[in-house]
Every structure is written in structure tokens, then in C-alpha cells.
Design goal:
Helix content: 10-25%
Largest sheet: 7 strands, mixed
Number of strands: 17
Oligomer: single chain
Radius of gyration: 20 Å
């Protein structure tokens, strides 16, 4: 076993605090990564607070993990000590079902093993612990390569916020000639804007906050619409081919569906607590669709990271000391971050 140290919630709703624990020894197909930075995702706080399902405690959050390989198993072929590497939301899958064989591990028929707050059911059935820690051991097939060209700290959020927005844009082939609306301008939304632009779409940001217009334009968005202004909303009725919805708060899906063209698609990547409620005619009148998308598979995550290296795309981040994690959570809930907190693990 490998001695590790991290920050953990010992029980539900607990404050994170230093916690020593053990990682598994490096197996034949494993890589051990010294964690240098870990992004802070809204889902970290949600899982500490059991907002989605009962958690496994003690819980070490964090699934936007980047660092440097320090050891590899004797059967590892894709990594060597010294390589930059990352681990995202997935730690394992069955590897045998049709979805896994097609590179869609995130939809494994047997259920994925999450990077934290899960049981490693395909290995030892022990709890998984995330990236608010100094080291992690991962199967090489669930680790990704990171380019030396990019700021490593700013790459960390790409492992969740990045792939969560890149995957649906690629799946629906969003690109040149399309009008893409990005609903919400936070950690996910700002990545959706960057990817939409890089893929050649005409990008509009939809937001309830007029104050975000300057931020949207700074990111390169072509247009901005305040969705609490009826005149602005009316002006973009029947306008968009796609809406990428990053909002995790309750919102009016019927309103946004009215902004889609015939055959338009409203793609949900946020998780509203009250679910999705829509009137049937909002879909029928225009052959419109509501779709959902989770994270991407490992092959697609590597594709996304390579795309980012080629287009010089990283997240806009604020680097924090791990002792300030709860202040960061408070600010995150208020939307007071542009656009993602990242923990400097040297402060652990």
C-alpha cells in the first residue's frame, strides 16, 4: 500500500479536514501520479452533502486531477515516469459490454467506478478517493496524457468541465453554420463558449444576469441575451440550432425551447435539483428535442485534450490554497468565481 494524505469529509455535511489514508500498490497496469493540481467542481460539494445519493465516508473529493507520473507497473505501455498525466471522473468500468468496447465507458452497462465516492467493484470493492490529495494510483486505461504546451493548473478543469461540454458538441456535430446558445456562464458555460467558437459556431450566451455580458464578450461570444428581458428573448425566438444548458438551478425549459429552430436540440449537462419539466407542445411544435449528456469516454477525453493543445484552450481559473476550500465553496455557490477554482496541491 502507498501512504497518502488528503482532505476529507469524515461524515455527511462535514467540513473537509486533513486525513491520512492509503492508496493501493501500483499494479502491473497502473500508473501512480503525483497530484499537482485539482479542480473544484460543484459536484464535490453536492456529494459531500448527499444531494444526489448517500455518500461513502470518509470522502476525499476531486475528479479534475493533473500531475506527473512517478511510477508505472511493469505492463504499462503508454506512460513513463516524468510524463504529465490526468485523471477525470472515471476510475473504472467493466471493459466488456458493448458501450465500453465502443469507447463509451461513461455509459458502462455494469455501471462506472467514479474517481471518488464509489466502490471499485471491478477490482477490490474498496472505496475510491479523489484528487484533494497528494497522489493517486490509476489504471493506465483511465489516465490521459497532457501536453507540456498548456498551463497545467488551467488544464485541471478540462477533466470535467471541459469534457462535459466538448462531448455533446462533438456528438451533435456542432460547428460552422450553426447557431449555438450557451445557457449559463460558469465553469461549464465558459468552456462551452470556448469550444463552440473553436468549432466554428456562432455563439450566443443566455443569462439572467446583465452583468455577465462583458464577461461573455471577453470570452469571444458573438451575442449576449438577458433572458429576464422579454424584448431580448422575443428577438431570438426560433433562432438557435442548439442550446447547451449548463444550469444546475431550476429554470423554465419551455421558454428556452421556444428559442430553438425547427429540429433544434436543447442539450442538458447541468443537473437541476427539481428535474426537467416541459410542456408537450414545446417539443411537438417544431419537432424539437431535449437531450442529455454526461462526461465523455477516455478516448474522447484524450481527443479533447489534444484539441485544446492545438487551439491553446484552457479553463479560466483562480488558484487557491487547500485550507481555503470552504471559502471557495461559498463563493462558488454565489457564482463568485471566473470560472473555476483549482487547488494548488503543494499547499496540502
Amino acid at each position: 500500500m502507498i501512504a497518502a494524505k488528503g482532505y476529507a469529509a469524515l461524515k455527511v455535511h462535514d467540513q473537509l479536514a486533513p486525513w491520512p489514508f492509503e492508496r493501493r500498490a501500483v499494479g502491473a497496469h497502473d500508473v501512480q501520479i503525483e497530484i499537482l493540481y485539482c479542480g473544484v467542481c460543484h459536484s464535490d460539494l453536492a456529494q459531500i452533502n448527499d444531494e444526489w445519493f448517500p455518500g461513502i465516508f470518509p470522502m476525499v473529493p476531486g475528479h479534475e486531477i493533473v500531475g506527473r507520473v512517478v511510477a508505472v507497473g511493469d505492463q504499462v505501455k503508454g506512460f513513463k515516469p516524468g510524463d504529465l498525466a490526468g485523471v477525470g471522473t472515471l476510475a473504472g468500468s467493466c471493459g466488456k459490454c458493448s458501450r465500453c468496447r465502443e469507447g463509451q465507458e461513461q455509459y458502462c452497462a455494469e455501471g462506472v467506478v467514479p474517481t471518488y465516492n464509489g466502490l471499485d467493484k471491478f477490482r477490490d470493492n474498496l472505496p475510491t478517493y479523489g484528487g484533494y490529495s497528494d497522489t493517486i494510483v490509476a489504471d493506465e486505461s483511465f489516465a490521459v496524457h497532457i501536453s507540456e504546451k498548456l498551463s497545467l493548473a488551467a488544464v485541471a478543469p478540462l477533466l470535467c468541465a471541459g469534457i462535459t461540454t466538448y462531448s455533446p458538441l462533438k456528438h451533435w456535430k456542432v460547428g460552422k453554420g450553426h447557431k449555438l446558445a450557451v445557457l449559463g456562464l460558469g465553469g461549464l458555460g465558459h468552456m462551452a463558449v470556448k469550444f463552440g467558437l473553436a468549432l466554428g459556431a456562432e455563439v450566443t450566451v443566455l443569462s439572467t444576469s446583465p452583468k455577465k455580458e462583458s464577461d461573455a464578450k471577453e470570452l469571444g461570444a458573438h451575442h449576449f441575451v438577458v433572458t429576464t428581458d422579454p424584448a431580448q428573448v422575443a428577438a431570438v425566438s426560433d433562432s438557435f440550432d442548439f442550446i447547451l444548458d449548463t444550469v444546475a438551478a431550476p429554470h423554465d425549459f419551455d421558454l428556452y425551447l421556444s428559442l430553438l429552430k425547427v429540429d433544434g436540440v436543447h442539450i442538458c449537462v447541468g443537473v437541476p435539483p427539481e428535474g426537467i419539466h416541459v410542456k408537450a407542445f414545446s417539443l411537438l411544435a417544431g419537432r424539437k428535442a431535449i437531450a442529455g449528456s454526461a462526461t465523455g469516454g477516455i478516448k474522447e477525453t484524450q481527443e479533447m485534450l489534444d484539441f485544446c493543445a492545438a487551439h491553446n484552450i484552457v479553463a479560466d481559473i483562480e488558484l487557491i490554497d487547500i485550507k481555503d476550500i470552504h471559502t471557495a465553496y461559498e463563493r462558488m455557490l454565489k457564482g463568485d468565481v471566473r470560472y473555476r477554482f483549482v487547488i494548488d496541491m503543494a499547499t496540502l
